[in-house]
Amino acid sequence: MSVAKGPVTQIAWVVADVGQTEKFLGAALGAQRWTRMPDIHFGPETCTYRGEPADFTAHISLSYSGDTQLELIQPVRGASIYTEFLEQSGPGLHHICTEPDDFDAALREAAAQGIPVVQQGTMGGQMRFAYLDGGDAGVPFLELAEVGTNMRTFFEQIKREAQ
């Protein structure tokens, strides 16, 4: 599959309690500090879930282990791939993220290969994301991301503080 060309930049878990998982993964993976962002809202004007406008909220926590971003997602309200995953599987490894050189080409390639996009959207005009369904291959989701300059600067700040 050539959809995910680009480095793996993130490993993410969907959890029931970000605080508990921060402690465990912090110790296990050497993440010194987490940046917790409560009540991040994804609205129907910027996000879709299973092809329909989405409206949900999640607590998100970020840290780093080396150059790899660690993300914890705790669904709070509304339907999303996060609530779906938690209901069907319980807490656990949810996705890995890559940053393809050409985000739009990667989405076209996924469509050509029949790989469904389960959820997609934008964050503040600084990041586009799309979750590809990898369930048939034993991988819950593969996230494709296109990260803008301001978001990249924010991630670099989190990385410095985490180590």
Structure explained in plain terms:
By secondary structure, the chain is α+β, with helices and mostly antiparallel strands. Helices cover 28% and strands 42% of the residues. The protein contains four helices and ten strands; from the N terminus they run βαβββββαβαβββα. The protein has helices at 18-29, 81-89, 103-112, 149-162, and strands at residues 8-14, 35-42, 47-49, 52-53, 56-65, 68-77, 92-98, 117-123, 127-133, 141-147. It has a ten-stranded mixed β-sheet with strand order 2-5-6-1-7-10-9-8-3-4, sandwiched between helices. A hairpin with a 2-residue loop joins strand 5 and strand 6. The model has no long low-confidence stretch (mean pLDDT 93).
Task: Quickly list its features.
163 residues, alpha+beta, ten-stranded mixed β-sheet, 10 strands, 42% strand
Tell me the fraction of residues in β-strands, as a range: 35-45%
The rounded Rg comes to: 15 Å
Q: Which spans have pLDDT < 50 for at least 5 consecutive residues?
A: none
Compute the average pLDDT.
93
- Termini separation: 34 Å
State the share of residues found in helices, binned by percent: 25-40%
> If helices are DSSP runs of H or I spanning 4 or more residues, what is the number of helices?
4
Got a strand count? 10
Overall geometry comes to: globular
Structural class by SSE content: alpha+beta
H/E series, N to C?
A: EHEEEEEHEHEEEH
Main beta sheet strand tally, sense and closure: 10 strands, mixed
The order of strands across the largest sheet is 2-5-6-1-7-10-9-8-3-4
